[in-house]
Amino acid sequence: MAKHMQHLKALRDIAFDFGVGEHPDLAVMARELSCRVHQHRQALSEDLADLRTRNRGFERWLVAQRGRPAISVLVLAWPANYMTPVHDHSGLWGLEMSLHGALEVESWDRDAEGNILRRTGRDWLGPGDTSWFDADDRYAHRCRNLSRHETALTLHVYGGDLAQYFTYEEAGTAGQWLARPQRSAFAGRLYA
Fold first, then answer.
1. Would you state the pLDDT for residue 181?
2. N or C: which end of the chain has fewer CB within 10 A?
3. pLDDT, position 144
């Protein structure tokens, strides 16, 4: 998987350059990342082809982490029609971009206790499209690969290390949700 270094390095550098401060300008970061992905879409797709053909289920690959200011860059592989549970991001800001395939992102708002969730929107991301969220303890979302046949790849940039988070499952009572603590795991590292 060494051939993708040049393109991932460029995406990592953009994320590091624009991911400064407590509340970075995620719209500018998204624009710059999107320009790079559109310019090199075919090469990036070819470079990351091994991730699309692994068929090992949902995988998170670490591209880079930085301590100050805290930021992490990941590539996620989404099997056909895979959907995450509703989950939060431990109050971190984040940006998610489709690199290959299409993703549906449902946004949710949760109360301070985390047991009442309300869907607030839905986005569809194709290659180069981004969705982002500010650092907010109330934000949660659910993502799904829209393809029934192909693995999708996405780039994720977070304002820190998303080591722990919560997933939310509907309880028996309408409108009530149960929060379940989770730990993140990486399938490996993509050196950039």
1. 95
2. N
3. 97
Domains along the chain?
Answer: 2-189 (2.60.120.10)
Residue 59 three-state SS: strand
Q: Which of 152, 121, 26, 136 is nearest to 88 (CA)?
A: 136
pLDDT for residue 101: 94
Neighbour tally for 181: CB within 10 Å:
8
Task: Work out the pLDDT band at 114, boundaries 50, 70, 90.
Answer: low
DSSP 170-183: E-SSTTBEEEEEEE
Residue range 33-55, pLDDT digits in tens: 999 999 998 888 888 989 888 88
Entry field: residues in the chain: 192
Residue 7 · residue 43 · CB < 8 Å: yes
Higher pLDDT, 111 or 129: 129
188-189: strand order across its sheet: 130-133, 94-100, 152-158, 71-78, 59-66, 188-189
**Residue 62's beta-bridge partner residues?**
74, 189
Q: Is 123 helix (H, G, I), strand (E, B) or coil?
A: strand
Residues 135 and 90 sit within 8 Å (Cβ to Cβ)? no
Q: What is the largest CA-CA distance in the chain?
A: 51
164: β partners: 183
Paired tokens of 40: 């090199």
Burial class of residue 135 in the structure, from the number of CB atoms within 10 Å of its CB (0-12 exposed, 13-18 middle, 19+ buried): middle
